[in-house]
């Protein structure tokens, strides 16, 4: 089985996971299930490409599949995402921020004192995050609307 970080590193697989999440939230009566053809339509990708990525997601345990005749219905399985969550939590928790403040020193107004290199690095990360968030929203929002009929 591939490392979970390698699995979610691929943008097409992240897009598929986003479609599955939107299906789960937007159409609760579906039980979160969506057909391969609906995923293909939502992403505007070819069926072989989507199937290839669904196989990787299935093998990593991130999706579950139900077969009905020749049709396959996929849904999100959050279990393996706990590995990602466990890794991220220390970076996101308030304790991590307090630890960083203790290591970096804190200014009198409570803000962490950063040197020029740290400030430049933080700025670059913030810009990269904002650009990525914008790109994901620009791609996913129209497909989400088509998928759930908004």
Layout of strands and helices, then pairs:
Elements: H1 4-9, H2 11-26, E1 34-35, H3 36-43, H4 47-59, E2 63-68, E3 71-76, H5 81-92, H6 94-104, H7 116-148
Antiparallel strand pairs: 1-3, 2-3
Helix pairs in contact: 2-7, 3-7
Keywords: DNA-binding, Transcription, Transcription regulation
GO molecular function: DNA binding; DNA-binding transcription factor activity
Domain HTH arsR-type: 1-96
Integer tally of domains? 2
Gross geometry? elongated
The end-to-end distance, rounded to whole angstroms, is 37 Å
Provide the succession of SSEs: HHEHHEEHHH
How many strands appear in the DSSP assignment?
3
Stretches where pLDDT is under 50 for at least 5 consecutive residues are: none
Oligomer: single chain
| Gyration radius over CA | 19 Å
The CATH superfamily label of the largest domain reads: Winged helix-like DNA-binding domain superfamily/Winged helix DNA-binding domain
CATH architecture call of the largest domain: Orthogonal Bundle
Major sheet strand order: 1-3-2
Question: How many alpha or pi helices?
Answer: 7
Q: What name does CATH use for the topology of the largest domain?
A: Arc Repressor Mutant, subunit A
Can you walk me through this structure?
The longest helix is centred in the last third of the chain and has 33 residues, at 116-148. The chain is mainly alpha-helical and 150 residues long. The chain folds into 2 domains: 4-79, Winged helix-like DNA-binding domain superfamily/Winged helix DNA-binding domain (Arc Repressor Mutant, subunit A, Orthogonal Bundle); 93-134, no CATH class. Strands 1-3-2 form a 3-stranded antiparallel sheet. It has helices at 4-9, 11-26, 36-43, 47-59, 81-92, 94-104, 116-148, and strands at residues 34-35, 63-68, 71-76. The model has no long low-confidence stretch (mean pLDDT 82). It is 66% helix and 9% strand. β2 (63-68) and β3 (71-76) form a beta hairpin.
């Amino acid at each position: 089985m591939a490392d979970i970080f390698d699995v979610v590193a691929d943008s097409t697989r992240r897009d598929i996971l986003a479609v599955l999440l939107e299906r789960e939230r937007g159409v609760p009566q579906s039980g979160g299930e969506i057909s391969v053809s609906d995923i293909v339509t939502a992403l505007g990708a070819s069926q072989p490409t989507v199937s290839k990525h669904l196989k990787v997601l299935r093998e990593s345990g991130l999706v579950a599949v139900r077969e009905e005749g020749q049709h396959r219905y996929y849904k999100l399985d959050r279990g393996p995402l706990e590995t990602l969550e466990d890794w991220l939590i220390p970076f996101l928790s308030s304790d991590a921020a307090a630890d960083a403040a203790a290591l970096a020193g804190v200014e009198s107004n409570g803000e962490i004192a950063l040197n020029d290199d740290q400030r430049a690095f933080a700025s670059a990360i913030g810009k990269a995050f904002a650009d990525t968030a914008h790109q994901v929203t620009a791609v996913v929002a129209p497909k989400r609307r088509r998928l759930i009929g908004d």
